[in-house]
Design a protein that fits this description.
With about 180 residues, this protein is mostly helical. The chain has nine helices and no strands. It has helices spanning about 10-20, 25-40, 45-50, 55-65, 85, 90-110, 130-140, 155-160, 170-180.
C-alpha cells in the first residue's frame, strides 16, 4: 500500500471544491479515494490520522450530499471545530457561529509553521478560498436549507462564483487525451 499521508488534506480540499461547485461525479470519485485513505490500513500514517479533523468531516458532508448513509467518525473529538456544524445543522443561528469558527480555523491553518501539525489549507487554491464553507452551503441548498452569511478575511463563495467554474475538458486536455 503506498503511503498517501501527504495527500490526505489535498484530497479533502478537492472534495470540498467539487461539492461547492456541484460536480457530483467528481465529488463521488474523490470521496471514494478519501474514504480509502482513511480506512485502508497503512495508506495514511496512523498517528497522523488520529489528529485529523477536516478530512473526516468532509466524508460526513459528502455522505449528506450524496444522500447515502451518513458516515459518523469513530468519536466526537475526531471532528474538532467541524463538530459544531454537524451538531447545529438544523439551527441557522448556531450554524452561523459554527461557520464563523470554521473560517477562523481555516485562516489559522493556511501557513505551515513547522512542528508536527500539518495544516490542511497550505496549498493553493485551497488556502485563500473557503471551499469547505462553499461545500456546506451547496449541500444545504441541495437540501432546501438556507445558509447563514459569515464574515472572513478569506474569499467568500459569492466572489468566487463557484457555480460558474467549468471542469470540462479544454483544447489542451483534448489533445493530451487523444495523444495517449
Amino acid at each position: 500500500v503506498p503511503n498517501l499521508t501527504n495527500q490526505l488534506s489535498n484530497a479533502a480540499c478537492l472534495l470540498a471544491a467539487f461539492i461547492a461547485t456541484g460536480q457530483r461525479d467528481l465529488a463521488a470519485s474523490v470521496a471514494d479515494i478519501l474514504h480509502g485513505m482513511l480506512t485502508v490500513k497503512g495508506a495514511v500514517d496512523a498517528d497522523y490520522l488520529k489528529a485529523r479533523r477536516f478530512e473526516p468531516f468532509m466524508l460526513w458532508l459528502h455522505s449528506v450530499y450524496a444522500g447515502s448513509e451518513v458516515l459518523h467518525p469513530e468519536n466526537d473529538t475526531q471532528l474538532g471545530v467541524y463538530k459544531q456544524v454537524v451538531d447545529n445543522w438544523s439551527s441557522d443561528q448556531h450554524l452561523a457561529d459554527a461557520l464563523q469558527e470554521i473560517a477562523q480555523y481555516h485562516a489559522k491553518n493556511i501557513e505551515d509553521k513547522g512542528g508536527s501539525w500539518d495544516p490542511e489549507f497550505k496549498n493553493a487554491p485551497f488556502d485563500l478560498v473557503l471551499w469547505e464553507v462553499g461545500a456546506i452551503d451547496s449541500v444545504r441548498r441541495t437540501l432546501g436549507l438556507a445558509s447563514p452569511a459569515i464574515e472572513s478575511t478569506l474569499l467568500p463563495a459569492e466572489l468566487i462564483g463557484f457555480q460558474q467554474l467549468d471542469f470540462g475538458p479544454d483544447d489542451v486536455t483534448a489533445k493530451v487525451e487523444s495523444a495517449y
